[in-house]
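Sample intake sheet
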Amino acid sequence: MAFFDIPLPVFMGQLLIGLINGAFYAVLSLGLALIFGLLNIVNFAHGALYMVGAFVAFLLLDILGIGYWPSLVLAPIIVGLFGIVIERLLLRPLADLDHLYGLLLTFGLALLLEGAFRHFYGVSGERYAIPDSLQGGFNLGFMFLPTYRAWVIAASLIVCIATWLLIEKTRLGATMRAAVENADLVRAFGVNVPLLVTITYGFGVALAAFAGVLAAPIYSVNPLMGSNIIIVVFAIVVIGGLGSIKGAIVSGFLLGVCEGLTRVFWPEASNIVIFVVMAIVLIVRPAGLFGKAA
């Protein structure tokens, strides 16, 4: 059976790859949009912290024998705490300066983290095995669906929806959004705004680390994995609308699928299709698909 002369297993296989990439794009874009939308920080270290999350999972297994499932919780917590230290010591002194200073600082931090891991582990990467409980797959007739790939898509959807509900539907989320609009007013009601900023940055970083742990069994854990994806993630955040939580989630999944299907019909364009979409969106709607016009 074929679809426009493309064998159905090939078409569905690329669709699956697109969904998997979209899952990573969505979680990473979500953390990036959260940090920018609530803190106005252009966090260029986001890709490096995604890489650190994967390495923390690898080191927990290699040194302490802690497996995948505990690492899925521990790695985001560890990297999130590291993010809190970054915000407290490095980003907070720049809070009242132009956004360019924060961008340059996080860019430098990304280079520092990548260089440190390259020094100790090189660029060939480290293998991280799929947990036994997620081995194998499902024969759907028209394609074989690996269990771990299905888990990645499901886990990403759960985390993205839970984060959206937290920000949009809870009192804590309302307080975060109010602090962005009028920090002085929120502070007058007794809210510790600096602590709220710190927790938000740590949570955004933890989302990047969570994506890193999910990616570890699929891709080799190597120091370049963050730099290979961060530009694409920034493009997706721009397409969805800077600071838009819903835009980051929807655009992440949709553009992952778009990239995957482009590999079927026009493989040469698969590496640039997201940037072409970004250019078109910026021309038609400069604020992004879900962004608010200035």
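Comment: The domain at 2-126+143-284 is CATH 1.10.3470 (ABC transporter involved in vitamin B12 uptake, BtuC). The radius of gyration is 19 Å.
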